[in-house]
């Protein structure tokens, strides 16, 4: 039992006595520990924003650069001017970032913006992963110790995480890398973000199931097949089962083409 509890603390899974929710993983501020991958929902649950809690009521997270254009996508904080120039009365360093970098340090309250707090789950079983109706809340991948996640986040705060891309290199990709050290090699598809996979998976599943309408007379049957395809597309893009991932030391991450600053502009 001791080993199970320790694993929960290390990998950010639900602690003993708390069951992993099917939709979300809501927690209280008193429950999170340095190195936890946390997230909150924006725009009435339209999308989630992810970061790494580094202790001291501070969060390191990844956002579009201040001068980034609208082409990087809308599932981000880019259209909120208050986020780009935060004014925190409690922490003078809230909002710190290096010039031309999207990695930012904020206090927990400014990260949440009065929203609820959730903790991302690692090392979940395939059935538990598929039971999550919405992507962006768990992964089958195992994570590294909390101090390693904090080190990666703080290193990237000083050195950047490349160009923000809503589908290939977003805030969830950043948090997943900090926790696992895994990077997607293939730039042609979706990144490691479960949230992005969900956005793409819905129309993809609907497209694939369209021909089945001629073979399955029942609308319920078509809906069931579509839902199954959606779940499987989410699972196939999970960083824990993909084969196009490599583990990269944070000091070497700028050499990876996927997030290289000199790579293709978004």
From TrEMBL:
PROSITE patterns: LRAT. InterPro entries: LRAT_dom. Residues 39-187 form the LRAT domain. Transmembrane segments: none annotated. Pfam families: LRAT. Signal peptide: none annotated. This is LRAT domain-containing protein.
